[in-house]
Every structure is written in structure tokens, then in C-alpha cells.
């Protein structure tokens, strides 16, 4: 009976040949064929001395366009070699990899998947890993410390999941270290990391460094890793803690217990307006906003988030929906409506993105009419602006209809005359409505938000009124008394140029 060919995978250990196990050394000596994944390892020279006939796969790294392509080529070659070695005695291919075959070794994963179908048996021999030296140098028990081990490429995602500690493998270049460093957008003042370099070798480095110096301290290579003791607080953890607080209030606070989705609507609306006001206060360049203004915006956005979480808490109690479901549904919608990012749809401009978004939204909702989906409860100016965008999307916008500044001026004049002639009557209200809708559409066609413009104008009006109040207070009289003393009422509006 013909025996099946065997690939025995051995590890070269984390450093020099002193970490090579006796079992690995015996297999290297006795195997019919010996192949090293790479000769770039401190123990590789000793293996090549024992087996001068051994080959390496270093050439694949020069030809492959990606690491995955290299690993695919190595596995294919190993399986072919093993099948050919079936005629040899012993019919064993010894494949030697850096470190341990069971730690961060992609070729072993691929061999486990493909060897059975290729008619090849696979034997993986345990070995000493670089992790064993890392735990010793760091003086920690990874189990007791709850250490996670990640490829450096997954670090950015890990920042949002937990607070650490982490050991990052595959930090083999300055670019990788730089990517890790930039993975924390706002590192804490004391954020630090430990560089582990050439462990077990004469030039070993174990250096604790400031986060800003992570990619500036040494020249990394394939024997470099990074330990991150603590990560900044994860957003997911903060939101989960907030949701727990809201749930506790719902159980223990009489006011919170009395609330329903309907009773909370007023608060949702109020918090939305307060958040808008706080965001507008940041100005055109938020990076220059005073710290108090920034803190206020953060506070108001938190109040708005609280309303969302409160409704999610009620939904969970009612068996309708919960916060995780809300988040998943939102993420699915964002992915579906950004096919230019997550799919094959092309979008060069922001207008293209908006058109794709509206088209996808209409298909999702099964809308048949152009103005479907515009809430009637929206503030009227904001609703007019949204209607104008809808009309413009099909060529019916203010400008597309041939109307411009002169037409707007004529409409303003005629409607104001009608308001004056039918003062207080139904015709005046209709004319005023026509005037406001036309003005809102005109502004929206020029990418201005009439609702925001009016809010800011009212803010300026409030400032001018406060200035008049200051003048009155300086004379020790009330505002109405101060106004009555003026030869002409002071203007509280800014003079405006003609419309055309």
C-alpha cells in the first residue's frame, strides 16, 4: 500500500538556532525535502548548514504583487513538491517557517485548507513563538492581562472596540508604524507604546516610547512588534455606558418612567433646535471657535443623542427595536446609498452623490410622486428649500423655468402691493405665501439654505436690539422711553440693496 506524502511544518523559533526544538531539528535532518519560507531569519543559516540542499521561497517575494499572492504560490509549490516526493524515502517535505507555525502564519492556514484535497497529509509541529519572548520582556501574563493580539493592519478598527492592551504583529516597516500611530486620531497626553525589536538577539530592543515617536525610534523589520498597554476610551463603550444610564433612569426615576414616544417628541424637537444653534455658533471655521463654544456644541449633541437612546430604550421595552438594531439599519442604509464608495457606481461630484441618494431612497420607499417623503411638519422655509431641490432634480427648478432675479423682483413688487391693498384679508396672506415660497426657491436654487439664512438674520437682529438696550441703559431709561426721545426711530434692520 502506497503511503500518502507528508508536509511537516516546523518553526524556527523567534531568534537564533538555540530556540529550535529537538523535534524540529530531527525532521530537518531526516526529511526527503527541506524548504524554508525565507532565509531572512536568524536561525535560517544554521538550517542551511545542516541541509545544504534546502531551498527557500525568497524568490516568490520578489515576483509576487502582494503577500497573499506570494503565500498562494508557496502553498502551490509545496503541494506539488509533496506529491512528487511520494516516490522518495522518506516521503516527507519539511517546511520551516519563522517563529511558530501556529502564530500568524498564513501559509499554514492555506495548507490546512488545501492539503486534504491534494492527497497530502499535514503535520504541524509546535514551536517557540516570538510571543513567548514578548511576554517575558514585558513581564506580563497575557491571560491575566486580557491581551489581544492583532495584525497591525487591523489596528484602526480595534481603536473603536476596546481599551486594550494589544500586541501588534507585522509592524515590519516605518510606514506600518506610521499607520498605527495615525490610527489614534487624538492620542491622550500620556499615550505610549513599547517597541519590541529583535527579541532574543544581541541587538534586542525593548523600548517604551511616546506615541508621537512610534515611527521615529528605530528601523523596524519582520522581527518587530508593538505592545500598546492602553487605548483611548472606545466610542462604542461610551455609548453602551450611556445607554445603561438611560435604562437605569427609566427604571428608577419617576419622570423617566412616565415618558412615552409621544411625550418625548417635544423634547426631541427642542434638543434638535438647540443642537442646531450650538453648531451654528461654531462659525465657518470651527477650529478657531472658543473652547466654551465647542463644549456647548458637544453638550447639545449629547442631549440630542440622549433622545435617540431614550426612544431606543422604549422600543426595546416594547419589543419593537433596540439601539443595536437602529445602528445596523443605519449602517446598511449608508452602504446601500453610497454605491460609489461600496459598489461600482460612479459619482464624480457632490451633485452626483445626491442624485444617486435620492434615486435609491425613492426605490427603497416605493415612492410614486416627486414630493413624496417631504414631511409636512418641517419648518415652512426648510420645506420650501427641499421642494425646490426636488423640482430642480427633474428640470423644474426656479432657474430651469426661466425665472431669475428680475422675475423675483417683479413678483416681490406685485405681491407686496397685493398685501398692502388687501391688508389683513385672505388675498394678503396668499400673496405673502407666494412671496416667501418664491424667495425660498430662489435662494435654494443658489445653494443657500433659507431657513439657516433667516435664523442668522434673526440673530443679527437680536444683537442690534441688545445694542439699543445698552444705549437706553446707559441713559438710565427703558428701551421704549429711549426710543420715544429720538427724533427718528433708530433702524433695527440693515439697509438692503435693490434686488435688481
Describe the structure.
With 500 residues, the chain is of the alpha/beta class. It folds into four domains: 6-128, Cobalt-precorrin-4 Transmethylase, domain 1; 132-228, Methyltransferase, Cobalt-precorrin-4 Transmethylase, Domain 2, CATH 3.30.950.10; 238-336, MazG-like (Helix Hairpins, Orthogonal Bundle), CATH 1.10.287.1080; 356-448, Helix Hairpins, CATH 1.10.287.1080. 52% of the residues lie in helices and 9% in strands. The protein contains 21 helices and ten strands. The strands form two sheets. The protein has a five-stranded parallel β-sheet with strand order 3-2-4-1-5, sandwiched between helices. Helix 4 (67-84) crosses helix 5 and helix 20 (450-474) crosses helix 21. The longest helix is centred in the middle third of the chain and has 27 residues, at 291-317. The radius of gyration is 35 Å and the shape is elongated.
Number of strands: 10
Residue share in helix: 40-55%
Question: Could you tell me the radius of gyration in angstroms?
Answer: 35 Å
Determine the structural class based on helices, strands and strand pairing: alpha/beta
Strand composition percent: 5-15%
Q: Give me the CATH superfamily of the largest domain.
A: Tetrapyrrole methylase, N-terminal domain
Most strands sheet: 5 strands, parallel
- Would you give the CATH topology of the largest domain? Cobalt-precorrin-4 Transmethylase, domain 1
Number of helices: 21
Unreliable spans are none
Strand order of the largest sheet: 3-2-4-1-5
Average pLDDT metric: 85
Oligomer: single chain
Output the CATH class name of the largest domain: Alpha Beta
Amino acid at each position: 500500500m502506497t503511503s500518502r506524502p507528508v508536509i511537516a511544518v516546523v518553526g524556527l523559533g523567534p531568534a537564533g538556532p538555540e530556540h529550535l526544538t529537538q523535534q524540529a531539528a530531527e525532521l530537518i535532518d531526516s526529511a526527503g525535502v527541506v524548504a524554508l519560507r525565507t532565509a531572512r531569519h536568524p536561525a535560517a543559516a544554521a538550517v542551511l548548514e545542516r541541509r545544504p540542499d534546502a531551498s527557500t521561497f525568497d524568490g516568490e517575494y520578489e515576483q509576487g504583487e502582494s503577500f497573499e499572492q506570494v503565500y498562494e504560490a508557496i502553498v502551490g509549490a509545496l503541494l506539488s513538491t509533496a506529491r512528487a516526493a511520494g516516490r522518495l524515502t522518506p516521503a516527507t517535505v519539511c517546511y520551516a517557517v519563522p517563529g511558530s507555525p501556529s502564530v500568524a502564519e498564513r501559509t499554514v492556514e492555506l495548507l490546512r485548507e488545501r492539503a486534504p484535497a491534494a492527497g497530502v497529509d499535514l503535520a504541524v509541529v509546535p514551536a517557540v513563538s516570538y510571543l513567548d519572548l514578548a511576554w517575558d520582556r514585558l513581564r506580563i501574563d497575557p491571560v491575566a492581562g486580557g491581551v489581544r493580539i492583532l495584525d497591525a493592519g487591523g489596528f484602526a478598527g480595534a481603536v473603536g472596540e476596546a481599551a486594550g492592551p494589544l500586541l501588534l504583529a507585522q509592524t515590519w516597516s516605518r510606514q506600518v508604524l506610521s499607520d498605527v500611530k495615525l490610527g489614534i486620531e487624538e492620542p491622550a497626553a500620556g499615550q505610549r507604546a513599547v517597541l519590541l525589536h529583535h527579541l532574543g538577539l544581541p541587538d534586542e530592543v525593548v523600548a517604551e516610547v511616546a506615541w508621537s515617536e512610534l515611527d521615529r525610534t528605530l528601523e523596524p523589520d519582520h522581527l518587530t512588534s508593538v505592545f500598546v498597554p492602553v487605548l483611548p476610551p472606545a466610542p462604542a463603550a461610551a455609548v453602551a455606558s450611556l445607554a445603561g444610564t438611560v435604562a437605569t433612569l427609566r427604571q428608577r426615576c419617576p419622570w423617566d418612567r412616565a415618558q412615552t414616544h409621544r411625550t418625548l417628541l417635544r423634547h426631541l424637537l427642542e434638543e434638535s433646535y438647540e443642537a442646531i444653534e450650538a453648531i451654528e455658533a461654531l462659525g465657518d471655521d470651527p477650529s478657531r471657535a472658543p473652547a466654551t463654544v465647542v463644549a456647548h456644541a458637544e453638550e447639545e449633541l449629547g442631549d440630542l443623542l440622549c433622545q435617540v437612546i431614550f426612544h431606543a430604550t422604549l422600543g426595546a421595552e416594547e419589543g419593537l427595536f433596540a439601539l443595536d438594531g437602529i445602528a445596523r439599519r443605519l449602517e446598511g442604509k449608508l452602504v446601500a446609498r453610497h454605491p460609489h464608495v461600496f459598489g461600482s457606481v460612479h459619482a464624480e461630484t457632490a451633485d452626483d452623490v445626491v442624485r444617486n441618494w435620492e434615486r435609491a431612497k425613492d426605490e427603497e420607499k416605493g415612492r410614486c410622486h416627486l414630493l413624496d417623503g417631504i414631511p409636512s411638519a418641517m419648518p415652512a422655509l426648510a420645506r420650501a428649500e427641499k421642494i425646490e431641490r426636488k423640482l430642480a432634480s427633474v428640470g423644474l427648478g426656479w432657474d430651469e423655468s426661466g425665472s431669475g432675479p428680475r422675475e423675483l423682483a417683479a413678483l416681490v413688487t406685485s405681491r407686496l402691493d397685493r398685501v398692502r391693498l388687501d391688508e389683513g384679508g385672505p388675498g394678503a396672506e396668499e400673496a405673502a405665501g407666494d412671496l416667501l415660497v418664491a424667495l425660498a426657491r430662489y435662494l435654494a436654487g443658489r445653494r443657500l439654505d433659507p431657513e439657516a439664512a433667516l435664523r442668522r438674520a434673526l440673530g443679527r437682529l437680536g444683537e442690534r436690539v441688545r445694542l439699543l438696550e445698552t444705549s437706553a441703559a446707559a441713559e438710565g431709561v427703558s428701551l421704549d422711553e429711549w426710543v420715544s426721545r429720538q427724533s427718528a426711530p433708530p433702524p433695527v434692520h440693515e439697509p438692503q440693496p435693490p434686488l435688481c
